[in-house]
Amino acid sequence: MTRKEANALVKQMTLEEKAGLCSGKDFWRLKSVERLGIPEVMVCDGPNGLRKQSEEEGAGINESIEAVCFPGSCAEAASFDRETMFQAGQAMGNACQAENISILLGPGANIKRSPICGRNFEYYSEDPYLSSQIAAAHIKGVQSKGVGACIKHFAANNQETRRMSISSQVEERALREIYLAAFEDAIKEAKPWAVMCSYNQLNGTFASENRWLLTDVLKNEWGYEGLVVTDWGAVNDRVKGLLAGLDLEMPGSGGWNDAKIVEAVRSGSIPESVLDSACERIVAAIMTYVENRDTEAVWDRQADHKLAVQTAKECMVLLKNEEHLLPLSKESRLAFIGKFAEKPRFQGGGSSHVNTKHWSSALDQVKTMENITYVSGFDTVDTMGKEDTDLDRKRLNDAIAAAGNAEAAVIFAGLPDSYESEGFDRKHMRLPENQNRLIQAVAEVQPNTIVVLHNGSPVEMPWIDKVKAVLETYLGGEGVGEAVIDILFGDANPSGKLPETFPVKLADNPSYLNFPGEETRVEYKEGIFVGYRYYDKKEMNVLFPFGHGLSYTTFAYSDLTVDRKRFNDEEECRVSVRITNTGDRFGKEVVQLYIQDLKSRVIRPVKELKGFEKVSLEPGEKKTVTFTLGKRAWAYYDTEAKDWYTEEGEFAILIGASSRDIRLSETVYVTPAVRHRRNYTMNTLLEDLFECEEIKDEVAELKHFCESIFVDETGENLLGEGMKDMMEAQTREMPLKSIPSFSDGKITYEYLEKMLNKLNA
Ligand code: BGC
Description:
Number of helices: 22
Mean pLDDT: 96
Bound molecules: beta-D-glucopyranose
């Protein structure tokens, strides 16, 4: 139903009915207006499966209906695969129809500012383009089934510490280029039915009542037509919220806030039209669901489980594989070590927790293989700081013995539930000490050691040089066991790439000095330099770079072409590149496109991801991958002009297999189609006028004059020998206002004023 059609229904409602509609009936249901045929509908948590609670359970976390658990968002982003994400979303959308759920609360598109944000496993990336693209695919998949998705948590909710009260202090350029951009394409392209505002404050105002965020940017600038819902319990001042663009309060306030809305409309402090508009958005969502209701829908547990396995295979990232140790032969004598082989960690804790009993373990998959022995190696209970018990020592010794007797050891390690969850941040970036110790000890006796990781975000790897292979499964969902075995034995070829940098240590991360902030505020002092944007700029060594991921086959990159070399930023530029599978098995490669502004006056990252495509290739097969680049590929956010802007000049188009493995590049020259007008004053420096075509003659004259200040009649530099650089700098950086006083009446203020008037006209 369109908003216009919804308006016809809203017009027939009483003031009380309208105010009532703006909050939930209970934890999971929206209110009905029976007499107008608007039914009560239910929502439930996502984003990686349904967490449908019964009415009685309300906020309880583990007692939801049984559902299929897909890989966590951390893993999904590693697929770099829009199609797979669409399919997973579609399966969840179908399950929503089968379970009569109108809106699935997800995906979460918040940027991974710090590797230790407790909820990173529910988010996609440190890069806004990747986040937004994967979120869009997920939303489109869910919504293709006639139910809504709800992108969250808008915005700058990048930590769990004090998440319900803290103010994220973020300057506008970083917001626009990083934190809001992670949502922007997804919202514009995929049009989620709902946007969930976050708990935190943004620059001192709660997101739930931040007019700039919810109305100026989201609704007006981005043209968002869906509804804005609070995170659960995020209302601060309901009346202010409504005025700021918050439509729906969840779960509700027992009528308290509804009454305030009624009072505010009666007293004239809120125009009734504002309330009507909120109601229109809510009614449109409810009735669109009603129109699309599919009462025949059933979800097929087996088919969805198979899809979860398939998705998990697309997501796993092979981080290291020395001497082609992987894939393993099914005939070799192997030791499987580590509790996670038996009971993998495949999802995170908190509101996204899916109740599934059908998860698979690696061990289940190999139980008929007599060449594999298993020992648990460690306990998943954290033993840090405590003395080892006899049992711990026995587990370690058994692991060493099993590893010593095998041809290779596979250690299934990872973060226990207690380390990483919604509600709190991680304290450090390490694995539990008993696991690090186990990996070191096994690697001492077994040169062919492989580590399989189960974690929602990066961990330090003090043992990295001692092991030959590392496979990152992230939180792989209920199909993790099948997927991991297929990859270890080569029935599937890994094709995931890291959606985030793995720094060597936590202190390397750009947010380190300002995470999680002080008392009421957290300052995002690193600005736009988040993730690889920072590590690249600082030329830092990292453990594994953004975009990294290996395969069992090899790919060659060739024939990079661009369809134009000089153009303005309103013209699209098409880039194509040929990828060949040069190995001997089927594989998939994620081709990444980064843009580098080769010379700019504003501070910019070394490179930024602006395109990616995943391509499947049989051995020897070649395919051409094409990217289309628009204005956003070149532009930065100009905070003075409050708009995106392309600075004229050369840009490099970099094509790579990771952010630090660039295979091909091409240079283009881009101009802005529309030049941003600045306000030029007497304090403008001469160099800031160099590109102003309108006054090019005057500027040449001024330049010539300024240079002449420093030379005598014979052309001799008055500043002395070797002072050419100083002379040039003085000229470039001369404010207009100072020129007349150097000129002995030759350049007058009148002359400069006339020139400025011409320029500012
Ligand atoms: C979480 C949301 C979730 C909601 C409902 C909140 O605490 O932040 O992501 O959708 O609860 O469970």
